[in-house]
Amino acid sequence: GEDVEQSLFLSVREGDSSVINCTYTDSSSTYLYWYKQEPGAGLQLLTYIFSNMDMKQDQRLTVLLNKKDKHLSLRIADTQTGDSAIYFCAEKTSGTYKYIFGTGTRLKVLA
Amino acid sequence: NAGVTQTPKFQVLKTGQSMTLQCAQDMNHNSMYWYRQDPGMGLRLIYYSASEGTTDKGEVPNGYNVSRLNKREFSLRLESAAPSQTSVYFCASRSPGDHSYEQYFGPGTRLTVT
């Protein structure tokens, strides 16, 4: 079945770039998302990319999609302490209601 | 707009007790979802409602029932709570007109079953 995998933890120093990686198995995925979850809160959409795109940039965020390897990454430039959170990768296939979420990557930013 | 609201925020139940988790959205969204979040397992879909009057099972529906009371409200019921249902429960909604198919999440209900 479909699966989305992420590493569980990432630690970076303030001001460095963070790269969070995700792999997925469903080759028919058409929408891929990055959500952010702060402590005690729900998930909030950070950015998304259509499967016909290779890259999307939005201020400090850069999303790279390698469809051949089914690999998605989120780069956060100039990481700040406020970026400390759990980041979820998710996929959705066109024509379905179902979203598949990864396990989440906990990003810790060290001052 | 309040977005997606959930009540209660926290709940402790004894095994065998029942309760209903409430969810409401004021964004006029058609689709609504219930997920559970467990450590190391991401979010798993419990039930889904494409529109008022319809519900469908997700990945982990056993032990739960849902009601789509109207377009705004989608409730999740635990008839006989079990310790395995200790989790954080999130409700979400989605607008069909949104080309990104973004889901909007509530703040969650933290449930402990002893």
Largest interface: A-B, 21 and 23 residues
**Helical element count of chain A?**
0
Helix content of chain A: under 10%
Counting DSSP E segments of at least 2 residues, the number of strands of chain A comes to 11
In whole angstroms, the N-to-C terminal distance of chain B is: 36 Å
Spatial shape of chain A: globular
Could you give the distance between the termini of chain A?
Answer: 41 Å
What is the chains' assembly state?
heterodimer
> Helical amount among residues of chain B, as a percent range?
under 10%
Question: How do the SSEs of chain A run, as a string of H and E?
Answer: EEEEEEEEEEE
Q: pLDDT average of chain A, as an integer?
A: 92
| Integer-rounded radius of gyration of chain B | 13 Å
Largest sheet descriptor of chain B: 7 strands, mixed
Radius of gyration of chain A: 13 Å
Beta-strand fraction estimate of chain A: over 45%
Care to give the gist of this entry?
The complex is a heterodimer of chains A (111) and B (114). Chain A has 111 residues and is mainly beta. Chain A has no helices and eleven strands.
Description:
The complex is a heterodimer of chains A (111) and B (114). Chain A contains no helices and eleven strands. The N and C termini of chain A lie far apart (41 Å). Chain A has strands at residues 4-6, 9-13, 18-24, 29-37, 43-50, 55-58, 61-66, 71-76, 85-93, 99-101, 105-110. With 111 residues, chain A is mainly beta. Chain B has 114 residues and is mainly β. In chain B, strands 2, 4, 5, 6, 9, 10 and 11 form a seven-stranded mixed beta sheet that branches. Chain B has a four-stranded antiparallel beta sheet with strand order 1-3-8-7, with no helix packed on it. Chain B is globular and about 40 Å long. The mean pLDDT of chain B is 94.
